[in-house]
Amino acid sequence: MKKGIMLLLASCSLLIASDSSRLYELYQNGQYDQACNEGVKKLRAHRDDEKFVSLYAFSCLQADKIDRLAIPIIMLKHSKEARSNAAYFSAILLQKNLLLSALENDRALTSLNLPSSDYVLSKVFDLYSKNHHVKSNNVYILKDPENPRQTYRLSLERTGKNAQLRIDE
Amino acid sequence: MLNVQELERRWKRYRRSKQIPYLIAGGVTAVVIAGVLYSVFSPEVQQIEPQIESSKRISAAEKITTSQPLSRTEAALPQEHLRPVPQQVRPPMQSASTTEQPSLKLSPSMGFMQEFESDVMNYYFNETPSEPSHAAKTESQPKAAPAAAPLAEARPLRQEPLPAIASQSLPAKTVGVPEEIVLSKEEPEPVEQQRPASGQMLIQREKDMKDIQDVITRFKKNKNPVLSLFVAKRYYQIGNYQQAYNYALITNELDSGIEDSWLIFAKSLYKLEQKDMAIKTLKTYIQESSSVKAKITLDQMEKGTFE
Predict the structure, then answer these.
(1) Taking CB atoms and an 8 Å cutoff, what residues of chain A touch B113?
(2) Model confidence, pTM
(3) Which of A51, A83, A113, A152 matches a 20 to 30 Å C-alpha distance to A102?
């Protein structure tokens, strides 16, 4: 009986370790989309493993699946690093939703002064909220004053009733 | 002999009695004025007045005489009065919004990656010695490397498109266990299920486009259908369904036996809101090949569960 339990525990820990290593491998190989898709299925089993949750969240971020950051934002709270990452993800998710709202509902974001980051969406948000944009045929062309060569095209792409943000770098 | 003191007292009393009506009149006037002032500057009016005064620039006298509620006066005002907010009215707000304070810059904290790396290495060394390639992969990376390094190093695989085709599990996405079902069992409700597709986002990066352009250049030289299929898949991945459709068609013209070209072709049609055409294409292909992947995709499209 004892042996059976020990064996079960050992196999469980092996499975968990293999999930982590698989996610790590996918991330290292740049297969962020796959890492994000596989990670979401294992997330519940690893909900107390902040390293796994963080890696999953970064994979989804790299794959531009911003909405998937919502659950890691709630889960990452125990360590200093996890809280820092949760704040980072929260800012990006908020910026995405604000941009979507601004474009769909035609709302100005000029009075906002949110934290920034190196992620492309944050840059676009900063430029949009500081009015560094020109609108042309429902596409916002954003120019970075610090890097005039860099332009972003921000638009809403509609498929039927649904609309999604589109950023061309 | 006259009593001067007595006379003076009388004179003073007489003078006071003469002044009493004036004093009474003055007092009454003061009370009336106070009453009028109170009614004019009552708290209710005072609350409304500054708002109207600040936002609409209408004279105070006009505001006092209007007994309408604020919302009505706002509606009645011409648009030009609503727009500007004078600086002197709300100085703290203005200073907060106009002065561009440097915003806080957040950065990802990747320290956990080092721990992760050592954990994974332990796993490979201790548990799976039969996988030397993985071990070699992780071993080759310096232990003390900065945590951000893997991020930068992770990209090169994207620059090798051909192996990526083989390793990409695009059919698995459509064929495999539906993600939603697995999630609904395990997760407290994943976000993407709760949100409509409007919550999605698409970012096209310059690097992605360079990858595709490189492969297109190579394809133009040798007309290899594997390359055009790769381009079709990449375009499909980044949401450019029109181009995905075009390259799937080209691939199909070069080699009509490639299953993925049919699938990408049909999926692109579906995404371009040509559902009937997509279903028709898949049915045609299933008749010829009896492909399982195509059947599953067709089933999903017909049920409307295809994403």
Answers:
(1) 55
(2) 0.47
(3) A83
